[in-house]
Write a structure and sequence with these properties.
The complex is a heterodimer of chains A (336) and B (401). Chain A has helices at 13-25, 33-37, 58-77, 91-95, 99-104, 108-127, 144-149, 152-168, 179-192, 203-211, 233-238, 243-250, 279-294, 306-314, 326-334; strands at residues 51-54, 132-133, 173-176, 199-202, 218-219, 227-230, 252-253, 300-303, 322-325. Chain A has 336 residues and is an alpha/beta fold. Mean pLDDT of chain A is 89; it is low at 79-89. Chain B is an alpha/beta fold and 401 residues long. Chain B has helices at residues 3-20, 23-46, 49-64, 68-81, 92-103, 115-120, 122-128, 138-145, 162-173, 181-198, 224-230, 248-261, 305-309, 312-315, 325-329, 333-336, 346-356, 359-366, 374-378, 385-400, and strands at residues 85-89, 108-111, 132-135, 201-204, 208-210, 215-220, 234-240, 244-245, 269-273, 278-279, 287-288, 295-301. In chain B, the strands form three sheets. Chain B has a six-stranded parallel beta sheet with strand order 1-12-7-4-2-3, sandwiched between helices. Chain B has a four-stranded mixed beta sheet with strand order 8-5-6-9, sandwiched between helices. The chains are: A alpha/beta (336), B alpha/beta (401). At the A-B interface, helix 7, helix 11 and helix 13 of A face helix 1, helix 16, helix 17, helix 18 and helix 19 of B.
């Protein structure tokens, strides 16, 4: 047994906020159902099927994260003490910030961009011949952050609800949009529920599987200049997905790849995981990764994880590097 | 939050941010990282068998962890056969008590670099007891003068540029020392040279210990370890029990992997010390205390290590050879150096701190780690830091309620 603390431990308050939101609202930022499911309007996706398209709400919440982190940073500058403080379940109430007010500052263009990515992912899969279903407003976040932050008991309870949702669709296969969701579903859920027998794959794997069935080449979004790859840590190291990415990009017309010095399993973290506790350090880590990617001479870096996308995009500073999501790259050509 | 651990977190966060905003740290680190990667690649290219050897060593270490008690006993018996003294200390306090009995007060001590020394607060303790202690590793000497702790386990002053060293030395030595690395090294050499021969006691850690022969292996480049363990009349070693392996042959394997991942094709010196100096040159009568020390004392420290060995997930932390490779791969360390640390540094340091010093000290480190896992790519022992961090967080959150 590790040496126990002489007094009770308390975790950084920011983590308690996330935990409270997931427990209460089903997602880390306390978003409403429509904010998470609005992307699918008009697609008429069925609620049952063999393949579940599971967004976990991650892209949808990206534009809100910075607002939350910003509010937490402002609290830290004041004397409220964001890092550690007593009973912070209702941090916002105490600090006099309402969630509505906080999120009012989110730019429509950011919201539109990230919602569009989710929609495009669904459309790409359909275009490639997959019949997907979804959970609509019933979709819950995966709980990856509960795992990440150490809230094992909360995760256990949350996972039960998530799994019930999965089962309600009758799906055998789940396609996830982020490596973090894939990680928690493949490496943690089976330990929480030994009947968890869904086949889980990332969007990248799903696309590569279809592509491998023929020699067909696909058009990519029109991109001028070289493209470099930002391997996401969890994708490359936890899930071991690196060559699939290169395989897909090799099937796309009009893309010239230049590898970053730190690539594949040696990729550099975007700093995203540190965002809630040490946001300032997290930004600096992102800026360093952007510099590594820019050093390739590429005009565009392509990301495979929602958090990496937001981190790198915000970390670009004065560099000329564009950061796009893999889904944008793919959809830009395929969907016209 | 309890007041004490809140303060621990706040102080930590303050220092972490100061470091992250200090451009000389990130500049020094980016140079160091570049050169580390080049050197380690060169070393592994020249000696490609190292990768396979590392796998073998992982097995040696893993098996050794089942035999910690037995190896301590064997090592103490072997040392006794060699006319040296072995001791077992359960806690840091026990180790310091043994040190006190051996050292007393009013002594001059020369010390070579030791992370265990950091762990138990050795220097501060000996100074409190009225001894004068000199760090002889150049980086650690610089940190001693700066009243600071090591910022990297192998290069303690990795974040201090030569200009700052020159200012520090000029003020300490009371004479102009130019910002020229050779001049700086020369100044310390001259100063410490006489200390080695005036010292009553030399102290060191160990990189690996062979239980069957009682041999202590100390790997170094500066030559300070040979002098501080060789010149004074008494040599005291403090070493964690996890550094024990059953045999000298296995110890050589561990040592080679260790220095190679510490970016050396081969280090300048590998010291193997198994007993006090002796001679039988006059009438074949063995007499102890020839040119080297006449006494050798080796203290084996537990301080949470056996508890780690008992847990399958955390046992792998004990395979750590302290080569420092992981730190060069850590994106946070690249910005903050050892401020991402308590006494042990970075992600692996969180595990060590949790078991050795306490959860409240480990908590800030545990929540600084990005769990990005690049440390594990570099680690010759493939220590799964991300999984250990996840488990530490689970325990911390559970005890926070």
């Amino acid at each position: 047994m590790a040496v126990p603390a002489s007094e009770a431990l308390k975790l950084p308050a920011a983590l308690e906020v996330i935990r409270g939101n997931i427990n209460k609202h089903g997602n880390p930022l306390g978003l409403k159902g429509q904010e998470v499911s609005g992307w699918a309007k008009g697609l008429d996706l069925p609620r049952r099927g063999d393949v579940l398209f599971y967004t976990a709400g991650e892209y949808q919440m990206l534009p809100y994260i910075d607002s939350l982190v910003g509010a937490l940073e402002r609290m830290q500058e004041g004397s409220i003490g964001f890092s550690l403080m007593m009973g912070v379940r209702n941090l916002f109430d105490r600090a006099g910030i309402s969630a509505e007010k906080l999120y009012a500052s989110v730019l429509a263009k950011d919201r539109d961009r990230f919602n569009a990515i989710v929609r495009k992912a669904a459309e790409v899969l359909q275009k490639m011949g997959l019949e997907i279903c979804w959970l609509g407003e019933q979709e819950l976040y995966s709980g990856a952050l509960l795992y990440e932050f150490g809230y094992g008991d909360d995760l256990r309870q949350h996972a039960r609800k998530v799994i019930d949702g999965f089962r309600s669709t009758g799906a055998k296969t789940i396609i996830t949009l982020s490596p973090h969701t894939a990680e928690v579903l493949t490496q943690v859920y089976p330990k929480l529920d030994d009947t968890f027998d869904f086949k889980v794959k990332t969007f990248v794997e799903a696309v590569w599987e279809v592509m491998q069935q023929s020699d067909q080449r696909w058009p990519a979004a029109r991109i001028s200049g070289l493209v470099t790859i930002h391997d996401a840590c969890r994708m490359a190291r936890e899930l071991g997905i690196t060559e699939e990415i290169r395989g897909i990009l090799g099937r796309l017309d009009g893309i010239s790849i230049v590898e970053a010095e730190q690539n594949r399993r040696w990729t550099s973290c975007c700093g995203g995981p540190g965002k809630m506790v040490f946001p300032e350090i997290s930004k600096k880590v992102a800026a360093r990764r952007v510099a590594e990617l820019a050093a390739t001479g590429a005009a565009t870096a392509v990301s495979f994880c929602p958090y990496c996308l937001a981190q790198l995009d915000a970390g670009r500073g004065d560099t000329k590097l564009e950061v796009v999501d893999f889904i944008e790259l793919l959809a830009g050509g395929m969907l016209g | 939050m309890s007041a004490a651990s809140e303060k621990i977190f706040r102080d930590y966060a303050k220092q972490l941010h100061e470091a992250a905003n200090d451009p000389s740290i990130s500049l020094a680190l980016s140079r160091a990282i570049k050169s580390y990667r080049e050197n380690v690649n060169k070393a592994l290219t020249k000696f490609p068998h190292t990768v396979e050897l590392a796998e073998e060593v992982r097995g040696i270490k893993d098996r050794a962890m089942d035999r910690l008690d037995e190896m301590v006993e064997t090592a103490i018996a072997s040392l006794a056969d060699n006319h040296a003294q072995g001791y077992f200390a359960s806690t840091a306090a026990d180790a310091l008590e043994i040190v006190d009995k051996l050292v007393g007060s009013g002594k001059t001590i020369v010390k070579s670099k030791s992370m265990v020394g950091e762990e138990i607060g050795l220097r501060e303790h000996l100074e409190e007891k009225g001894n004068q202690i000199w760090e002889t590793d150049l980086g650690e000497f610089i940190q001693q003068l700066r009243h600071d702790r090591p910022m990297h386990i192998l290069s303690p002053a990795i974040h201090v540029p030569r200009e700052d060293v020159a200012k520090l030395f000029t003020s300490f030595f009371g004479k102009e020392v130019p910002p020229d690395i050779a001049a700086e090294v020369g100044t310390v050499r001259e100063f410490l040279r006489e200390k080695y021969f005036q010292a009553d006691i030399g102290m060191s850690g160990a990189n690996v210990v062979a239980a069957d022969t009682g041999s202590i292996i100390v790997i170094e480049n500066e030559g300070n370890a040979r002098l501080s363990t060789g010149a004074p009349p008494v040599h005291i070693v403090i070493v964690g029990v996890e550094k024990l392996v059953p045999t000298l042959q296995e110890a050589f394997k561990v040592a080679e992997v260790n220095w190679r991942y510490a970016q050396y094709t081969v280090p300048s010196y590998v010291n193997i010390i198994s007993g006090p100096s002796k001679t039988g040159d006059i009438e074949k009568v063995t007499t102890y205390g020839a040119h080297g020390p006449r006494e050798l004392h080796v203290i084996f420290l537990d301080a949470g290590r056996k508890a780690m060995a008992a847990e399958p997930l955390f046992r792998q932390a004990l395979f750590c050879m302290r080569c420092g490779g992981c730190m060069y791969e850590c994106p946070v360390f690249a910005l903050t150096a050892g401020r991402f640390g308590y006494r042990y540094l970075a992600g692996i340091g969180a595990a060590w701190t949790a078991f050795g010093s306490g959860m409240e000290y480990a908590l800030p480190l545990t929540y600084t780690c990005l769990r990005c896992g690049r440390c594990m790519e570099r680690c010759p022992m493939k220590i799964d830091v991300p999984s250990m961090i996840a488990e530490l967080r689970r325990r911390m959150a559970a005890s926070a309620g």
